[in-house]
């Protein structure tokens, strides 16, 4: 067991607050609720006796009829809801003092699971709509799914976990829309930190469901591993995983995630990128946000080790293999973005490490992750991945780091 002695430098206070919510009362105390849950705890139960069991929702559709009709009248159907029959309930922030929605406005767990399946199968992969618009739509509808489930605390734990697992997997498969300035393009004005917080809250909802349930959930080890991979290098996240029962920690997915986390925090680039290359698709999605910083740290280590006053050449092809890059062109772009020259004939380029030339003044260049992520779908659909039909314990493509 490790002792948590402070906050890690790589994460913000908000990150540590969200990840560490379950630790505030000690390991045996119940996890604290996210802000949305606290707001809902103040909502009156609309005539239900105090402590009485709340009924499950009865809405049979992806979107309640009243909402669908109102949004159609107001011409607020999204472009991905071209046909009213394909409308999906949108997220509406709960307000203190507002009556709890009646069962007819809430979708039961089986309908919520069907909603997530629909989003993964019919919406997430739409190529005729700009990706930011797809992401805005999917993330909003997944928030509505989690809110509907939160309003049905009597839902069977196994059903609730299945909904939260599928929703989180879908969220990982549809990267959040980029931030920007208000009014400038699709998806503009969305705060990346807010989207990151939403993802952390999605993990928190699922992990609380596991903690509160007496049942053993078949996919729990796999989703606990996604939590760690999404939070690589976080002392808080590692502490949470190490508090899990030994039998759960010993599952292949969690052992693999612990190995990736160890290589990441040790700055062992060779081992890290070899392990990342062997991950299946969904774990690769969870770890993807750390790839850029890991490449930068590896490049900085090479600059310290190889930098000379006259400059030392390093084969670009070898560097591309080491960092699991998709192409020599992107490898060269990464070097130039950090002040390193690239010389030589096409196909035989070399990065030149001159002492003092390496710099991190600019942002990381936008680089693809085809080798480490996209290539691992291998003909599977996003629906299969989200619903756990792709063989979660399988391996990704290994790559040569020699």
From TrEMBL:
Signal peptide (from-to): none
Residues of the SAC3/GANP/THP3 conserved domain: 62-343
One Gene Ontology CC term in the entry: spindle
InterPro entries: SAC3/GANP/THP3, SAC3/GANP/THP3_conserved
Segments for region (Disordered): 1-46
A biological-process GO annotation: spindle assembly
Name recorded for this polypeptide: SAC3 domain containing 1
